[in-house]
């Protein structure tokens, strides 16, 4: 899919989102201590190490749980939200979208599923922490999808989750994950990369 410009694409996506999200936004209450932090996403989340790193920053007595599903796009990930809600987290980290890009799925659909996920979580009083997909231009399927990746990132920001975690510093100026964070395929972070993600997310708990 080709876009006339990133700005135009994002504007279109946000109009779609506003159309599907007619309900008033619910501001979650102040998150109590200790925290219950859930991480929902694809294979990068399924790895589990970024959440383990984040746990070192959480208040005593906090708990964490990984809901990671390798190879799944946003719609499939969202289908597991009921499991997340049953665990009753105070905070929900969401990291996904790369599999949708790799599969060539419609941006409008991806953004709509993310919007539904965010709004459902917020309606349950959960703080939503959205992580911008980590750099992946060095991967086989990522080299020609940087415009689309930027559109997705802008769309996530435009949905206005409670916290947005930027991941661009993990990559170079061509959108490739830095060698010190690369697990070997240009997409999946190694141990240092996982710890870097956890460190980035920690700003949401300071």
The CATH class label is Alpha Beta
Q: State the share of residues found in helices, binned by percent.
A: 40-55%
Overall mean pLDDT score? 89
Order of secondary-structure elements: HEHHEHHEHHEHEH
Topology, element by element:
Layout: H1 6-20, E1 36-41, H2 43-46, H3 49-55, E2 63-68, H4 74-78, H5 81-87, E3 91-95, H6 98-103, H7 107-123, E4 127-131, H8 146-158, E5 163-165, H9 191-201
Parallel strand pairs: 1-2, 1-3, 3-4, 4-5
Helix pairs in contact: 1-7, 1-8, 3-9
Entry keywords:
alpha/beta; Rossmann fold; 9 helices; 206 residues
Describe the structure.
- The structure is a single chain.
- This protein has one domain: 3-Layer(aba) Sandwich (Rossmann fold), CATH 3.40.50.
- The protein is built from nine helices and five strands.
- With 206 residues, it is of the alpha/beta class.
- The N and C termini lie far apart (40 Å).
- About 5% of the residues have low confidence.
- The chain has a five-stranded parallel beta sheet with strand order 2-1-3-4-5, with helices on both faces.
- The protein is globular.
Provide a short characterization of the protein structure.
By secondary structure, the protein is of the alpha/beta class. Helices cover 41% and strands 12% of the residues. The chain has helices at residues 6-20, 43-46, 49-55, 74-78, 81-87, 98-103, 107-123, 146-158, 191-201, and strands at 36-41, 63-68, 91-95, 127-131, 163-165.
